[in-house]
Specification:
Layout (H helix, E strand, L loop, with lengths): L3 E11 H4 L7 E13 L3 E5 L5 H4 L6 H10 L2 E2 L5 H6 L10 E3 L5 H4 L9 E4 L1 H9 L2 H6 L15 E3 L5 E4 L2 E6 L7 E4 L8 E5 L6 E3 L18 H6 L3 H16 L3 E3 L18
Parallel strand pairs: 3-5, 5-6, 6-7, 12-13
Antiparallel strand pairs: 1-2, 1-4, 2-3, 8-9, 9-10, 10-11, 11-12
Amino acid sequence: MRPVFANSAWVAAPERLILRKGRWQQRWLQVRYGLFIHPKAGPTLIDTGYTSHSLNTSSRTLALRSYAGILAPRLVVQEQAGPFLTQFGLTAVDISRVIVTHFHADHVSGLAAFPNARFIASGAAWAQVQGNSALQNLRHGVFAELIPGDFGTRLDMVEECASQKIAHLPDGYDIFGDGSVLAVPLPGHAHGHFGLLFGQLEMPFLYATDTQWIGEALLPGGRPRLFPRLISDSFPEVARSSEQVAAFQKAGGEVLLCHDTAPSQFDFAQGAEL
């Protein structure tokens, strides 16, 4: 069982913000989301990426429309969930679970499109979203209007899964109880932020989500300082999580980040298959 990742959109950012000593010219970042088919749980998404109905509608709040206007994501139409799932003989109603690595808009904007899915997420992160004011959530890039109203009743908390030791990484949560996919806490970027370890592949594969924006920034000399201090939940934890992911990679594991510009063997655009 292996995941395949689609690119929902391109977003431009000055390289200097995401890479220490980077250039000031724009670098186009991917906004990935993933799909795998678990033998028992069935079709499962990893986040949802950006979607047109969530960002390009007049019914959205001024805050969300302003967010979309500032970041100006360029949607990749052919890799939106509808056409992407069709490539595998699936539709939105076939998705049994959506793993929500954290609650930022570029990871949850399509949740409402999957009416039959259970949501797998950090209970601690969900509690914070519920407890925060709208302004506090906005400060952390969270828009409650993108989260289905029945999210809480469809939630399976990763913290309730059995814990499992992982070399070079924090203990993971065994999502399906068979060791195939572990939710690995990688705090810093957002409260409750986690990656996913597919440890039963020939080469262990870690989807490290938003630990950094690009692979070069995982190394000490490449880690940006100012921008993460401004937007991260905890800058010291960003550094710690980056060190752990880099150590996993150095030990022979494969790593993919949500926004990395480098192509991956797990990318749909590179011919990846389930």
